[in-house]
TrEMBL record:
InterPro entries: Lipid_A_biosynth_N, UCP028440_lipidA_biosyn. This is Lipid-A-disaccharide synthase-like uncharacterized protein. The lineage of its organism: Bacteria, Pseudomonadati, Pseudomonadota, Alphaproteobacteria, Hyphomicrobiales. It comes from Hoeflea marina. The keyword Transmembrane applies. Residues 26-97 form the Lipid A biosynthesis N-terminal domain. The chain crosses the membrane at residues 20-40, 52-73, 79-98.
């Protein structure tokens, strides 16, 4: 095996195996939830034959964003904390607007 391939293999093992713990698992679950919002939006748009933003998009955004925010806090990543924190406000506000429309 080439030197760089061996180093890459060691790096992969460290990143994905050695440091695996409950927080990494939470991060993967959070990322999966966050990704589901795009899947839900895509499927709804395909069904409607036009671009659609279903309410489930915002619920997946809020759930995935909350878990990613918790993960970012635990990892003490200021860029990730700021990005997810702002997103949470936007997701919550969109759900509030939708709820207001439905009441009217």
């Amino acid at each position: 095996m080439n030197g760089w391939m061996a180093e890459f293999g060691v790096w992969l093992h460290h990143v994905f195996v050695e440091q695996f713990d409950g927080w990494i698992l939470l991060g993967f679950v959070a990322q999966a939830m966050f990704t589901m919002r795009f899947v839900v939006q895509w499927l709804a748009s395909e069904k409607a034959k036009r671009s659609v933003m279903p309410v489930a998009f915002w619920f997946f955004s809020l759930a995935g964003g909350t878990l990613l925010f918790i993960y970012a806090i635990q990892r003490q990543d200021p860029v990730f904390i700021a990005g997810q924190g702002l997103g949470l406000l936007i997701y919550a506000r969109n759900l509030m607007l939708i709820r207001g429309e439905r009441k009217a």
